Amino acid sequence: MEHIELEQYILKYGRDIYSFCIFLTKHKQEADDLYQDTFLRAIEKNDIDGMANPKSYLISIAINIWNNKKRKYLWRKNKADMRYSLEEEVVEQVADQSLPTDEQAIRNGELEYLRCRVRELPEKMRIVVLMHYMEDMSVEEIGRLLKIPVGTVKSRLYHAREILKKKMEENQHEG
Predict the structure, then answer these.
(1) Which end of the chain has fewer surrounding CB within 10 Å, N or C?
(2) Is the distance from CB of 59 to CB of 20 less than 8 angstroms?
(3) Are 145 and 59 in contact (CB under 8 A)?
(4) In this structure, are residues 94 and 86 in contact, taking their beta carbons and an 8 Å threshold?
(5) Backbone region of residue 83 per phi and psi (left: phi > 0; alpha: psi in -120 to 50; beta: other values)
(6) Pick from 43, 35, 8: nearest CA to 19
(7) Which residues contact 46 (CB under 8 A, 6 or more apart)?
(8) Per-10-residue mean pLDDT for the chain, 175 residues long?
């Protein structure tokens, strides 16, 4: 991959890949590392097909790197507790910077509540939700990239939607 090609991929997909990394890792420093590692691995492999879907390919690289890092961490520490809080500055970076009207403020509040609930999902569900809704990938594409059956993707999406629907309803009744 030439320097110019890499720049084009970063310009075209960089923001989306970074947002995905933030939601996947739930921590700015981890997201920064994962983002860099993703593009480094893409350079090393040098097999991005410009005619296919480079964004999906880059996301699959990020997921594979993240899963490998988690396995190594769990093996070394023999613990499963990798919970991080999303720093406020990350939310500000990802959020729209325009001044909201009253309706937009309410909608933004609901969206932020939903984002927080998505971050609380079990990782297997969170990954498919992010890939499907944030990255607009089909269930077939998600299944292929994660190397799981399409039915499993559909099941995870269904269960995640049910959990999120219940939490959103609870939030409406509280507010």
Answers:
(1) C
(2) yes
(3) yes
(4) no
(5) beta
(6) 35
(7) 1
(8) 78 92 89 93 80 84 88 56 39 48 68 84 91 88 93 95 87 71
